[in-house]
Design goal:
The protein has 251 residues and is α/β, with parallel strands linked by helices. The chain has 6 helices and 11 strands. Strand 4, helix 3 and strand 5 form a beta-alpha-beta unit. The longest helix has 17 residues.
Amino acid sequence: MVKVAILDSGIEKKHEDLVGRVVREYNAINPQEKVEDIYGHGTAVAGIIAANNNTLGIKGIVPNIDIYSIKVLSDNGKGNIEALSKGIDWAIKNNVDLINISFGMPYDKPELKKAINKAVEAGIIIVASAGNKYGLKSDYPASYDNVISVNAVTADLKIASFSAKGKIDFVGPGVDIITTTSNNNYGHVEGTSIAAAYVTGSIANLLTHKNKFNIPDRYDPTYPDKVYKVLKKKSLELGDENIYGNGLIQL
């Protein structure tokens, strides 16, 4: 089973469309406290990636995966490097395959880069949102070379007005998206954070069928490059690489 860590505001694991998806959780802000998603952002991301295939609500891109919920954002959506680094370290110790970071910061921080490098060296693929920057430079950690940076497009495959510019790898749907929300509800959301969830789901789907695409074990030195090459080959080019990257992944 592919393991996906969602570093966010937590996940409402009792949501009717997320029951059974979260196998472990960790509060990187206050480790002694339980994980609750008051802000709702993490629950929205989780629904896009892995909402259950049932008769309720929506269906995630890849429901048959294990979700590791790591709370690194507070109940009002704020975060810091310390919590994020602790969350990444916990994900490494729990041997996850993928990390989704649907937020970012405008500046490079040595502590963040160190944590990201440690995860990548452990064979973990990291996906991050480029940021809702309205044409300004993409956020960190998305701007790092070893992180997959995601911008957002509309339903007609045009770049979303709030998207970033710069180091972009792929795009995903990010406008008027329906997904799971707090209090067992559903709602419409938008943002590069939502687009990142689509790309994470697509990669998780790819990893569940990695033999079909001749992708080696994650500890193979060629593993990240081969995953990236498959994603690039399966993407629809949309235009300027500084905005669309390699385009929209179509598996």
